[in-house]
Amino acid sequence: MTLLGFQTTVTGDVAVVALSGELDVAGADLLEHELTRISADHAPGGLVLDLSRLAFMDSTGLRLVVLADERARREGRRFACVRGQTDVQRVFEMTRMTDRLHFVDSAAEADSVSFELDLPRELESAAAARQAVDALSGRLPEDQLGDVRLLVSELVTNSLRHAEMSPSDRIRLGVAVSDDVVHVEVSDPGKGFTFERRAEDANTVEGWGLYLVATLADRWGVELGGNRVWFELDCSPDLDAAA
């Protein structure tokens, strides 16, 4: 019988729990106790579950991972999982938790946030994009996260309404967060557009979406013949406090 093992290290404001062995009902209470202890004793800005050495995980283990993610969201902390071996990762894929959880290739990667998402030409894609941005919860102050969600929603909606894409085309959302800036871009394979008016002027801009982008973003632009719109927000001075 292979028992669950784990080792916890805390570096800066990030706690990493490296799991090994098998995560099932026999080890669930031990891991849950450890995660509660970490939250109480260290109050980390980020929590990483390293699943790379875990040999087995069933639905009991899946539930613990999802609950840890929910707790981190409530408490405004970053949360990530280092990808597990094939059998472990398959559990996340079958339950579609790969769409909800933030996976990285190493614990070191967890402190930087970047991801890309391909969205179908469906009205629900604006909501899916906002949900993806929620992975930044705990990394950004609440008001700035709200700005990113709003602008992402506007740009994805613009693609859905105006790009004249085919049913098989996809909208691509790219997000990257560093210590200094949040960079977001939305692109599509549609016809593009020519932007000639000042977006900062609500009386002349064609549509409110770009007006909101121009108003809230520190920098923004249109590239590739109107097929890609990007914006940047400077990270707030109290970012570390928010984490």
Number of helices: 7
Structural class, judged by helices and strands? Answer: alpha/beta
Helix content: 25-40%
Radius of gyration (Å): 20 Å
Strand order of the largest sheet: 1-2-3-4-5
How many E-type strands? Answer: 10
- The residue-averaged pLDDT reads 85
* Gross geometry: elongated
Stretches where pLDDT falls below 50 for ≥5 residues?
238-243
Tell me the strand percentage band: 25-35%
Please write out the topology:
Elements: E1 5-11, E2 14-23, H1 25-41, E3 46-57, H2 59-75, E4 78-82, H3 86-94, E5 103-104, E6 113-120, H4 125-133, H5 142-162, E7 170-177, E8 181-187, H6 208-216, E9 219-223, E10 228-234, H7 239-242
Parallel strand pairs: 2-3, 3-4, 4-5
Antiparallel strand pairs: 1-2, 6-7, 7-8, 8-10, 9-10
Helix pairs in contact: 1-2, 4-5, 5-6
In short:
With 243 residues, the chain is an alpha/beta fold.
How would you describe the overall organization of this protein?
The protein is α/β, with parallel strands linked by helices and 243 residues long. The protein contains seven helices and ten strands. Strands 1-2-3-4-5 form a five-stranded mixed β-sheet. The protein has a five-stranded antiparallel β-sheet with strand order 6-7-8-10-9, covered by helices on one side. Strand 9 and strand 10 form a beta hairpin. It starts with a strand and ends with a helix.
